[in-house]
User: Which sequence fits this backbone?
């Protein structure tokens, strides 16, 4: 939010603050409706998935501390098995989209080798894996809400459903080497390595977003209090959205908190534009989905937002998929 | 305060956004030429210790550039044209790659980032874009690019100077700056694209001129001069 007396603290930027750049760019790319960009996007998800798998495989094979801890070793096995299944689903999808099955991703392999080279120890390396995985899930979330391809949305929904477990388990691995894994920041060398892979596919020219492909009626205007209020609605039988009214303006955001999955419809509205999750008090701007306040532990991501129009006393939400 | 004659203002008012971009480049050419000389003259005189010192600040600059762009999108998304989100993300990826390239070269010369503190003048360079943008939310992206992306344009000249000056004496520096230069041109083009879209009023055009001449160019001039002075003494 713009303040009257700005205090710009550039140097306070942390590694995971790069996630919003990934989110907003992925959203714009998908809202362009271009099949070409959809393919580029899917291939980049595969790169990030590969980097995460390579990285965590190294942890499994070379970290004596984790291999000697039954709980950690078992959970690492679960994460790797799960990521490998997602990888196979994504490979199948890309093959169906392009007609050919991707071979080994050399860019991801090179990035992995660079990460091994530049990381300053296990904590730094595992935090790099965590960053790669978080950027992957951030980008994948954009696909769930905006990709005009049902098959891809199914693949990505399965992936993002594991977000909570992945975060928890990776912090457990990190905790073997860093006393406060939740607050641990990877080095600039590791962050730069991951970012140079994660965002290199974005175009060098602006991408025009297209209008929604359809408008879905979600409620009557008078179902939400005139000054300010919220209403939860279910679209297409699966997508929960929170409709927010602020005076004459209406907004729609996904109803699931991006921190640990609390329902925003159970939370609080701070007019004109802020909603708060009741579980851990993450706060969001309903106009942009921006995270205005992080919870005390963990990290929330930007919320998905949807265009809203009101016609004839009815509220409609726009979707970018058919 | 930059004062322009009435006829000049009327001329600017009549310009299309594309004409304005060309006009901007032509009136600021002396600045850009100066940055070429900074780069060329510096590298022809630098010794190994000076290069290490200079690369330390340069490496930090790449991180700072990535950080300020990420912060723009993270905290001020509502003021950024959504069409530009992907282009800014691409810039973040470039800056991250530049960090790695510069750091690799730094290590090759026997240096490291250990104990590094950025020069205050360079901190100002990277704090300027958001500070200026926050003062005029209606010109947010216009002002942001009038600061950060114009610095990138001076970097195009500077890096060309380094590339030319490095010659056969420092082939690895010449190769690196050739690569960086191509990306800086793209980063500068973000300003061009923004201005082509948003410089459609006299007020917007005059704001770009004022911001660059009063803030951006003096700030980057001071930062580049200071870096050369300090690195010659191996003090960064």
Assistant:
């Amino acid at each position: 939010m713009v303040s009257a007396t700005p205090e710009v603290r550039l140097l306070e930027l942390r590694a995971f603050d790069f996630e919003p750049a990934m989110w907003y760019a992925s959203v714009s790319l998908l809202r362009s409706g271009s099949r070409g960009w959809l393919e580029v996007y899917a291939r980049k998800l595969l790169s990030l998935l590969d980097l995460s798998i390579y990285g965590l495989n190294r942890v499994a094979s070379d970290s004596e501390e984790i291999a000697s801890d039954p709980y950690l070793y078992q959970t690492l096995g679960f994460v790797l098995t799960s990521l490998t299944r997602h990888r196979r689903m994504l490979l199948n999808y890309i093959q169906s989209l392009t007609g050919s099955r991707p071979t080994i991703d050399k860019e991801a392999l090179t990035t992995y080798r660079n990460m091994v080279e530049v990381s300053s120890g296990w904590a730094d390396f595992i935090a790099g894996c965590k960053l790669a995985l978080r950027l992957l899930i951030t980008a994948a979330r954009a696909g769930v809400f905006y990709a005009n391809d049902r098959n891809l949305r199914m693949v990505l929904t399965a992936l993002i459903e594991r977000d909570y477990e992945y975060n928890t388990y990776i912090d457990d691995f990190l905790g073997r080497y860093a006393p406060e894994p939740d607050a641990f920041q990877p080095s600039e060398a590791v962050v730069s390595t991951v970012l140079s892979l994660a965002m290199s596919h974005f175009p060098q020219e602006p991408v025009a977003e297209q209008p929604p492909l359809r408008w879905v009626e979600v409620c009557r205007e008078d179902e939400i209090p005139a000054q300010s209020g919220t209403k939860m609605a279910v679209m297409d039988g699966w997508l929960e959205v929170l409709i927010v009214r602020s005076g004459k303006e209406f907004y729609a955001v996904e109803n699931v908190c991006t921190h640990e999955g609390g329902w925003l419809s159970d939370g609080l509205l701070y007019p004109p534009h802020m909603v708060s999750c009741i579980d851990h008090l993450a706060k969001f701007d309903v106009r942009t989905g921006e995270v205005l306040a992080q919870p005390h532990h963990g990290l929330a991501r930007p919320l998905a937002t949807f265009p809203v129009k009101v016609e004839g006393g009815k509220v409609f939400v726009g979707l970018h998929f058919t | 305060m930059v004062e322009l004659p009435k006829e000049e203002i009327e001329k600017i008012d009549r310009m299309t956004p594309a004409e304005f971009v060309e006009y901007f480049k032509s009136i600021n050419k002396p600045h850009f030429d100066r940055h070429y000389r900074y780069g060329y003259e510096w590298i022809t005189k630098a010794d190994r210790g000076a290069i290490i010192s200079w690369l330390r600040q340069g490496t930090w600059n790449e991180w700072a550039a990535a950080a300020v762009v990420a912060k723009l999108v993270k905290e001020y998304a509502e003021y950024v044209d959504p069409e530009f989100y992907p282009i800014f993300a691409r810039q973040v990826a470039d800056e991250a790659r530049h960090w790695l390239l510069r750091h690799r070269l730094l290590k090759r010369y026997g240096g490291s980032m250990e104990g590094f503190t950025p020069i205050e003048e360079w901190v100002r360079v990277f704090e300027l874009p958001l500070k200026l943008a926050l003062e005029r939310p209606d010109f947010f992206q216009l002002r942001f690019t009038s600061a950060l992306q114009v610095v990138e344009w001076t970097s195009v000249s500077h890096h060309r100077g380094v590339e030319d000056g490095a010659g056969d004496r420092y082939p690895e520096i010449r190769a690196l700056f050739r690569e960086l230069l191509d990306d800086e041109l793209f980063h500068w083009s973000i300003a061009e694209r923004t201005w082509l879209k948003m410089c459609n009023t006299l007020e917007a055009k005059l704001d770009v001129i004022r911001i660059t001449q009063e803030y951006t160019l003096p700030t980057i001039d001071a930062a580049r001069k200071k870096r050369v002075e300090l690195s010659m003494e191996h003090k960064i």
Observations:
- Chain A touches chain B through 48 residues (CB under 8 Å).
- Chain A has two domains: 14-198, 214-319.
- Chain A is about 45% helix and 15% strand.
- The two ends of chain A are 34 Å apart (CA to CA).
